[in-house]
């Protein structure tokens, strides 16, 4: 077995002695009989004359040029247009919810707490409780299917105005309330964003609404409430309980959940010293703070009604199993239901042709899997497609085939890098990002009914779709449009709530094509094995995989800088600007912050005169939660900081530089999802072991196209994570919703 190694060919006092990858072999850790890194490839050691372990003092100097920019009128950014589109679609989602004739599915076999909770939510929906306003929107008429012979006119959708910032009087009033409660008045803009222009009155009436501001914790809200309410404040205050229920579910959404079992919510409330958790949940439901749903079979209460010794023996077999009650925020409930309705609409709509023309396109497909996918799309309005990087060519072939048949076809990716790769396969005029397609800044535009002017849409990177974004996308497609959801089910999921792609696959209600085209080379073999739960050795005759063992985090930073700056460019031929570092988290002694500081000092030292950034710095711009663009700083102007993202210009507004821009030589695997680079250095220090999972390793290692270096300090935690640690589970409702809507007569 051929193994790659990094040779130590220099000494501490020889600057040119930077280590490089050679064809000399070193025994792998598994072959030495010693405790060592159990990863494919070979152990290797390096020495270097210099170690970049931190930035200079001037690296965080405040901006001079960018911050001094004027207030010139600029066009709406893509992010603003996307937010406007989200608001418009949420109105549509609520209208679709209003079309439903009855309340949320009620369990006729429920009793006790479940019956009380469902009765409460019925009261909300019927108008007897204040929460009825959630369902007060007027029904939206269904769009007619477009006529094939006369395509709808294509025109770009004008972005809707972004919400106007609160005025100085509003902010001043909010600052006064915050100061009165001992909270920093600097929170005023965030408070008005979360609570609106009536924020001051809202906080006076219910101080715990401060929890609606991201980053505020319950103990801080409690202190704020005590300062405002005095003796009236107590742990049993129903306002506190309702706010804590909402806060618990908001925190869960950050972990990907769209709902939580009632037992989990009760446990969270108990940890916050809520005296009567049952009453707290009932109050939150009756006030419309949360919605109640039933799903599956599981224990309803946190504790049984009777002790095990007192329980009756011989439970009748025909007794109904208890139903798991879920609690969810209305925004995610409405999004999941709208998404399920939209997917069912596409799946059930008749296609516009008999598929005969597609047969010839399938015969000319580049691979058997591509031909199978084209045939599936020919006869169905909704198709799922799974596979690795090589499978992306198969879904791209669908766009090419549809365009050849005279249909309006497009493909969408999660990131700008994904769009760039798509453009190489289907043409720049048919490749977009999902966000730009929805915002109207890219794409074919909208027809007269407000739908995207498309007959076929292929979505790559579907695992990165959160439930709200997916609902917006599906709602924007016209009746009769064919939709292909494609992606690799093994990669890390979306940054937002939901597991859309996995839920659609789990429903097994629409045609699915699994690619049989393997990813090529040693890297493809390595990543495919990881997806199957095995971390084996691979032959790497071209030094495609290199293992660099380290003892601690400080050495991990040193080795990482050395690989990026010296070894990989010299031995592999990939320059530093095409090498991406990926690590587990932002914090810690070898997280993205520490690595970026060391890499900046080595690769582009400078005073950071543009808000901490210099021309030539690699940066990561968080355009929206879960969507990162990597670029290089060019200059600063009145409109903000100018970036070059792979040849595409991008301007970061000056007010977002501090909050949304970071150095980007090192990213987390979540940030890197949907992108690829010629070379990747994966840094796994010892303290990263708890953050590893199979999907994390699969995603991080799979970002490399030609070369992967693993800076390895987690010993046996890496193979154990691949074999035993799946991605964290997410609680969602989309699968049963889809199953109910798409159930066939035979299944019934």
TrEMBL record:
Residues 1-83, 133-154, 298-322 are annotated as: Disordered. It comes from the Bacteria. Residues 141-151 have a biased composition (Pro residues). Residues 302-321 have a biased composition (Acidic residues). Residues 663-711 form the UvrD-like helicase C-terminal domain. It holds the Pfam family HHH_RecD2. Residues 58-83 have a biased composition (Low complexity). Gene3D superfamilies: 1.10.10.2220, 2.30.30.940, P-loop containing nucleotide triphosphate hydrolases (3.40.50.300). Residues 173-258 form the ATP-dependent RecD2 DNA helicase-like helix-hairpin-helix domain. InterPro entries: P-loop_NTPase, RecD2-like_HHH, UvrD-like_helicase_C. This is ATP-dependent RecD-like DNA helicase.
């Amino acid at each position: 077995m051929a193994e790659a190694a990094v040779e130590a060919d220099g000494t501490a006092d020889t600057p040119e002695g930077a280590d490089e990858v050679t064809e000399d072999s070193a025994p792998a850790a598994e072959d030495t009989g010693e405790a060592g890194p159990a990863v494919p490839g070979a152990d290797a050691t390096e020495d270097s004359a210099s170690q970049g372990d931190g930035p200079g003092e001037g690296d965080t100097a405040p901006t001079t040029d960018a911050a001094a920019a004027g207030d010139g009128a600029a066009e709406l950014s893509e992010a603003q247009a996307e937010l406007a589109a989200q608001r418009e679609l949420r109105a549509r989602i609520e209208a679709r919810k209003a079309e439903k004739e009855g309340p949320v599915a009620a369990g006729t076999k429920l009793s006790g707490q479940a019956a009380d909770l469902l009765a409460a939510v019925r009261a909300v929906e019927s108008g007897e409780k204040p929460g009825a306003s959630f369902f007060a929107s007027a029904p939206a008429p269904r769009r007619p299917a477009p006529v094939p012979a006369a395509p709808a006119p294509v025109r770009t959708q004008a972005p809707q105005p972004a919400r106007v910032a609160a005025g100085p009087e509003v902010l001043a009033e909010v600052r006064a309330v915050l100061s009165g409660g001992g909270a920093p008045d600097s929170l005023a803009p965030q408070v008005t964003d979360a609570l609106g222009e009536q924020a001051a009155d809202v906080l006076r009436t219910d101080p715990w609404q401060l929890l609606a501001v991201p980053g505020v914790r319950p103990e801080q809200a409690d202190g704020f409430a005590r300062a405002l309410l005095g003796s009236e404040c107590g742990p049993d205050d129903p306002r506190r309980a309702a706010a804590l229920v909402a806060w618990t579910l908001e925190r869960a959404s950050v972990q990907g959940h769209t709902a939580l079992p009632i037992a989990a919510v009760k446990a969270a409330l108990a940890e916050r010293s809520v005296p009567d958790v049952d009453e707290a949940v009932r109050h939150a439901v009756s006030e419309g703070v949360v919605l109640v749903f039933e799903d599956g079979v599981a224990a309803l209460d946190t504790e049984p009604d009777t002790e095990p010794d007192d329980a009756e023996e011989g439970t009748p077999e025909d007794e109904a199993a208890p139903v798991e009650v879920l609690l969810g925020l209305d925004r995610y409930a409405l999004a999941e239901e709208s998404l399920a309705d939209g997917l069912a609409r596409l799946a059930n709509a008749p296609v516009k042709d008999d598929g005969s023309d597609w047969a010839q396109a399938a015969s000319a497909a580049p691979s058997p899997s591509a031909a199978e996918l084209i045939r599936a799309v020919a006869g169905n309005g909704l198709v799922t497609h799974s596979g690795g990087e090589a499978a992306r060519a198969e879904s791209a072939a669908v766009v090419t085939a549809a365009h050849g048949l005279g249909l309006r076809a497009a493909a969408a990716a999660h990131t700008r890098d994904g769009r760039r790769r798509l453009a190489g396969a289907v043409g720049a005029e048919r490749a977009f990002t999902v966000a730009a397609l929805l915002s109207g800044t890219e794409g074919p535009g909208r027809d007269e009914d407000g739908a995207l002017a498309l007959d076929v849409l292929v979505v790559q990177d579907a695992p990165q779709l959160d439930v709200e974004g997916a609902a917006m996308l599906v709602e924007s497609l016209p009746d009769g449009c064919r939709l292909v959801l494609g992606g690799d089910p093994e990669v890390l999921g979306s940054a937002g709530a939901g597991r859309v792609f996995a839920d659609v696959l789990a429903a097994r209600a629409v045609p699915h094509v699994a690619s049989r085209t393997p990813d090529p080379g040693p890297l493809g073999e390595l990543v495919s094995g990881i997806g199957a739960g095995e971390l084996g050795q691979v032959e790497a005759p071209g030094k495609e995989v290199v293992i660099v063992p380290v003892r601690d985090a400080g050495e991990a930073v040193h080795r990482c800088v050395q690989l990026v700056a010296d070894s990989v460019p010299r031995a592999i031929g990939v320059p530093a600007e095409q090498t991406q570092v990926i690590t587990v988290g932002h914090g810690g002694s070898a997280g993205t912050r520490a690595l970026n500081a060391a890499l900046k000092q080595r690769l582009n030292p400078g005073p950071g005169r543009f808000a901490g950034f210099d021309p030539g710095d690699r940066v990561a711009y968080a355009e929206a939660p879960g969507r990162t663009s990597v670029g290089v700083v060019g200059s600063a102007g009145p409109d903000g900081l100018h970036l070059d993202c792979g040849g595409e210009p991008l301007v970061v507004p000056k007010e977002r530089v501090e909050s949304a821009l970071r150095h980007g030589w090192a990213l987390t695997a979540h940030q890197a999802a949907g992108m690829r680079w010629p070379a990747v250095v994966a840094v796994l220090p010892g303290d990263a072991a708890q953050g590893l999972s199979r999907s994390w390793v699969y995603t991080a290692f799979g970002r490399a196209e030609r070369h992967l270096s693993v800076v390895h300090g987690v010993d046996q935690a890496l193979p154990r994570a691949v074999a035993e640690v799946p991605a964290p589970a997410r609680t969602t409702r989309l699968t049963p919703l889809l199953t109910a809507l798409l159930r066939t007569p035979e299944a019934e």
